[in-house]
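Here is one such protein, fold included:

. . .
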Amino acid sequence: MKLDHTKIKTLGELKSAGYKSKSIKDELRENLLSKISKKEEVFEGVWGYENSVIPELERAILSRHNINLLGLRGQAKTRLARLMVQLLDEWMPVVEGSEIHDDPLNPISRYAIELIKEKGDDTPLVWVQRDERFFEKLATPDVTVADLIGDVDPIKAANLRLSYADDRVIHFGMIPRANRCIFVINELPDLQARIQVALFNILQEGDIQIRGFKLRLPLDMQFVFTANPEDYTNRGSIVTPLKDRIGSQILTHYPESVDIAKKITKQEAKLDQRQSDKIYVPEIAMDVLEQISFEARKSEYVDAKSGVSARMSITAFENLLSTAERRAVLAGDTQTVVRLSDFMGVIPSITGKIELVYEGEQEGAGFVAETLIEEAIKSLFSEYFPKIDKLQRKDAQTEYDELIHWFFEGEGFDLLDDDPDATYRTKLDAIAPLNNLIKEYRPETSKEDSYFLKEVLLWGLVAYNKLSKHRFVQGFQFKDMYGSYIRGL
């Protein structure tokens, strides 16, 4: 039933309008069923979970369960919890002045009960919008029972001249104040075990106990917890009785394809409109960017238990555009296209987002980041150009012989990081075998994309040990593997 919250101001008017109380879990359930029946998207902007996490989450809501979202960092756990707010009714009536969102038809606090007893149908109401019905707490070791549940307030007792035995001296914590709301505790294993024990009664019986008071507050709440599997061993665990009281535990995961990962990155990246207008990003550049994360998740240098957050691709994309933008400004170009060499600018985004194992620490974060970029190019190379076999006969001919011979006959080829666009294109156009390979195997490629593909060809041949690549202060030099050495003899 939809009520006009602008006209209903008292308890009597609420009753006359036919309002009926319902629990928050029933509220979520009814609105979810309505959206499903209308084929409306429930968790908008969450990609890759359509056939896995979202159906499980919907089943948990329909079952009226408290929920634990378990997964590695950067898997949209908190975003899913925040989107549950859209399943609440738009407006909720509350007894005016109540600290714990008392339902006018089913009050539970002493304040609301006494006010309704005194004023009856004239009891004033206020309306709370659904966005204000979301409470979130990050579990940290310094969180106390008083923070979450509440405690005796000696100042209130002194001001009101009340005994400590009077329940009016209680100062409610975050959870009672989130009555009839969604309450999220992030990183639950970080919460000390004795604090987790304080949640037992709330989850099972729906009531709270404060400092020995014989106080029963049947709270009406939807709990959502998030946890990282790594935390179970590193910083703590969810105590077994608490875990037993959580209705559904749902496992989240990383995007399973590059296409889904690209959608997430483009949606979440915070870009200046001028960057978007000035810089063209070839689709293959986005493929390389996302493939870096996929390579990191299986790299021997990266700690797989820690995970590689989707935030790595997002911040890397922002850095990539900023690198191209800076280069264009230095060169005086009004428009530019992302280059493969611009990917050196995303290294700080990679090193700040991955946890290295011992072997990775020995090699160094910068080396690991460059290796991941090279591995990403190597993985995508065969999708665009003929595959290079690891084992080939010595006299076997390949599609790349002409290009390799071009480097064998030359002294090397330099691409500077800050070359103006005109210079950059002229240099690449001067390599005739490179142009021929693009025409033969990627004839549909646009002019803007072709230069990035030319760089992919060079980097790919380096990855397969057909050419050599040397990084110097101002850019890259590509050479043949052995010709310069032979000529020097």
Q: What stands out?
A: Confidence is low (pLDDT under 50) at residues 485-489.
